[in-house]
Amino acid sequence: MRELQSVMKTMFQQKRDVVLSILFGFIAGIAAVGLFAANGYLISQAALEPPLYVLIAMVAVVKIGSFIRALSRYGERYYSHRATFTMLSDLRVHFYEKLEKLGPTLFQKYRSGDLLARIVGDVESLQNFFLRVFYPPIVMALVFLSTILFVSFYSFSIVLVFLLGLLLTGVLIPAWFAKKQRKVSSRVLEERSVLSTETAEWFYGFRELTIHQKQREKHHQLVAASERYIKEQEREGLQSVSYQSINSAVTLLISWLVIVIGALAVSNGQLDGIFLAMLIMISFILFEHAVPMALFPIHYDESERAASRLYSVNKEADQEKIEETKLTNVSKSVPSIEANGITFAFPEAIRNTLTDVQVKIPSGSKTAIVGPSGSGKSTLLKLLLKQYESTGDLFVNGVSINELHQEQVWEMTKVVLQENHFFYGTIKDNLLLTNDQYTDEDLIQLLERVQLSHFSLEDQVLERGQNLSGGEKQRLAMARAIAKKGHLWLLDEPTSSLDAWTEQRLYEALFKEAKDDTVILVSHRLAGLENMDQIIVMENGKVIETGSFEQLMNNEGYFYHLKQIEKSVVA
Ligand SMILES: Nc1ncnc2c1ncn2[C@@H]1O[C@H](COP(=O)(O)OP(=O)(O)OP(=O)(O)O)[C@@H](O)[C@H]1O
């Protein structure tokens, strides 16, 4: 409910359109009732052969009524749709701005196809909130009350019939429909989410599916998901049409009751017969306003669910409290890192990935983290990038990372991950991503520093860097890291695809660049670690040794043995 209030707040930014939709809706409703009432009265009067001018005057009233009805209906549609589309556009911008900051975290938590489909679908579902949930009941109530007031001058029993009709078609039947429809709607949402995830997997995994000859199988799964989705949609459509028919049948029964009760009142002398046709005609039109109420609870539910799902993603953005005062301290100086008792498990994982990790990385130092595959090295970097939250204390320059906004952390770091994304465009476009202040000359120098001088700035990069080799991608990622501002280097196997010669050149360039900065280098290889200030050895999510290269070799512990194994393999 709180989430719907937020949607309403966005909606009321279009106050004028909201009020005009209700006003025009009310005028259209009352004009329709007046039109039908005048028609009924005209039919009765015509039977009594009144003077011609009376008939002409009444026909003129009917004409004017229909004219007013058409115009105000147009006004209602115009303003209600304008309010809705402006509200949707405001919501999209609002969510995009929030999600932009949370991108990496969210895409790890949710499957990307699923998340995008959810957000697009949920924002679209909210178009029904104003059009079918918010203002139609207000218009219906206003038209009903005004009509009932008018009818009460003629027959109290018909007022009671109208109230009964309102209760049935406006409240009881919609509530019953809603209960039945809820199940079907949730199945439609589920199938839509499965289909969009399958589609996203199909696109992203196209190459692997082709190589492993699984295209046909995946294609069948996709078609099956699509068919299930269509079937659920058909079922939903069929149910809502049948509900509307039942509601219409009930409104016809009410009109029939008005005929019976009105005829009795005329025969008892309680009602002048000339008004009977008018009251019957009113009953025909009045319940037209109650027909959309059949779908009110469904749209209400759908809007509430959509809003709460949207805002649940949004909440994660709000939970990130920014302490502006700490921004300067943390981002402008060369960071030191301290981790005390860090324990972490990935969401839904059974085991801890990190257990009681203690690490001290002084400002400006060069640290290597080594250890077997799966020992938790990359995970530690992810925590430093604030992609996940852990238990224990993690300090950056003495400030708890919990008190920092993710953006502050990213602002101070230069990152090369195991997999780096490259955008369709040129080498220059991809380099300018991190620092658009660089001139062409700067960029050419940058390429030389990372051993990519064979590239020109205008060379094409295909989608996701498909036309670059693994080593070229790593060097380009390193160039981007050098170009980016910041004093904390987080490097996760940045040279794993490079030959030893290029690797050495690259490290030379890197350490020259990062002379005064804090560097954390995750590496499988143990060669070249002699110059690091500190080596942290991890195994099974725990830090098992820490020290300089010399200390660790003298200790003859785990690192020493790894080094012996590496030597024997190389020899
Ligand atoms: N997103 C994730 N969800 C669940 N488990 C994960 C996730 N990412 C990594 N893990 C698990 O956490 C453990 C540590 O992974 P991590 O990538 O930190 O290891 P690593 O030491 O960097 O390995 P490598 O040297 O192979 O890159 C592994 O068992 C891995 O399966």
Automatic annotation (TrEMBL):
Any GO BP annotation: cell redox homeostasis
Gene Ontology MF term list: ABC-type oligopeptide transporter activity; ATP binding; ATP hydrolysis activity
Listed SMART domains: AAA
Membrane topology: Multi-pass membrane protein
Keyword Magnesium included in the entry's annotation: no
Residues annotated as domain ABC transporter: 337-565
Domain ABC transmembrane type-1: 19-288
Primary localisation category: membrane
Compartment list: Cell membrane
UniProt GO cellular component terms: plasma membrane
Keywords for the protein's UniProt record, in alphabetical order: ATP-binding, Cell membrane, Membrane, Nucleotide-binding, Transmembrane, Transmembrane helix, Transport
Keyword field contains Transport: yes
Transmembrane segments: 20-40, 52-72, 133-152, 158-177, 249-267, 273-296
Source taxon at top rank: Bacteria
Protein name: Transport ATP-binding protein CydC
